[in-house]
Amino acid sequence: MTRQVLYKGLSAFSSICSMAMSTRILHISDLHFGPPFMPTVAEVLLQSVPLLNPDAIVVSGDLTQRAKRHQFESARRFFDRFADIPMLVIPGNHDVALYRIFERLFRPHALYREIIHPDLNPVLQVGNVMLVGLDSTAPRSAVSNGRLHRHQLRHCEEAFANVPEDMTRIVVAHHHFAPGHDKVLDVAMPGSRRAIDCFVEQKVEMILGGHLHRSYIGNSLDFFPGHHRERGVIIVQCGTTTSSRGKGRERDENTFNLIDAGAKTLTVTHYLYFEEAGEFAPVSKHSFPRQGQAFDPGDAGSGSTST
């Protein structure tokens, strides 16, 4: 009887497999290849990857400083050094030409598509996680603040439509869905509430982003009441991983996040670069029960540590 249930269909089998595994995602952002890029920090990041042993790497935008060909080519060579680790990469506002007006208006992502990836809204399934990337750049209307369009929210819905119920659903966008959480004034991306309401209905559990050049790990319910008070969306902002453009409490700092998606718990470990030691080290750890689950400390990313 048990075997009949287990092998009833591919969807059921995938669901059972995802319950038994944990998936690790390295989240980096705002690399800014160009004048602000810090090669020494980037090399340390590369050396850290085998120790972190991620199942996938997410890059949430701003690969370049001024969307120039040689900057994209440098980013491409950097990504190629991650060997065979699956990657999901999306553009940021700095990956669109700012001062080359004709290019920004008529072919804003030409270099990005040619050198990095042709898909601006990529989808990646790895382990028990489904990741959907969304291009939040708005070259013609809101270069800095960004936008998400209704067709992108439908794209999310379609991508998650056939995903097993217990698979972790994560959205990646460059711009931020929550307003500035410190003394550095930043307003949320226009249309954030609409997007988060859609994500909640789609059972998205986490949003990964960048843009602010400082980190934040919390929940959409801290800012927006939403339709379902019991299931907001975990918001994970990454600071700048390899540039000198950190802001607020992360001024002149470099950071990344490591996400462990378990069967019952989502854990985010926040890493900071220590120049004297020449290494990234964990400085905080944040564990969240998955939607509909009680908190299980034994499932909270045993591979991560905190200080």
What does this structure look like?
The chain has one domain (23-288): 4-Layer Sandwich (Purple Acid Phosphatase, chain A, domain 2). Helix content is 24%, strand content 23%. It has eight helices and twelve strands. A six-stranded mixed sheet has the order 3-2-1-10-11-12. Strands 4-5-6-7-9-8 form a six-stranded mixed sheet, with helices on one face. Residues 1-20 and 302-307 have low confidence and may be disordered.
Keywords:
24% helix; disordered C terminus; 8 helices; Purple Acid Phosphatase, chain A, domain 2; six-stranded mixed beta sheet; alpha/beta; 307 residues; 12 strands
Largest pleated sheet: 6 strands, mixed
Count of strand segments: 12
Estimated radius of gyration:
19 Å
Number of helical stretches of at least 4 residues: 8
Q: What multimeric state do the chains show?
A: single chain
Please give the CATH class: Alpha Beta
Beta content comes to 15-25%
User: What number of domains?
Assistant: 1
Mean pLDDT: 87
Rounded to the nearest angstrom, the distance between the terminal CA atoms is 48 Å
Indicate the overall shape: globular
Strand order in space, largest sheet: 3-2-1-10-11-12
Helix-strand pattern: HHEHEHEHHEEHEHEEEEEE
What helical percentage do the residues reach?
A: 10-25%
Q: Which ranges are low-confidence, i.e. pLDDT below 50, for 5 or more consecutive residues?
A: 1-20, 302-307
Look at the helices and sheets and give the structural class. alpha/beta
CATH homologous superfamily label: Metallo-dependent phosphatases
CATH architecture: 4-Layer Sandwich
CATH topology (fold) name? Purple Acid Phosphatase, chain A, domain 2
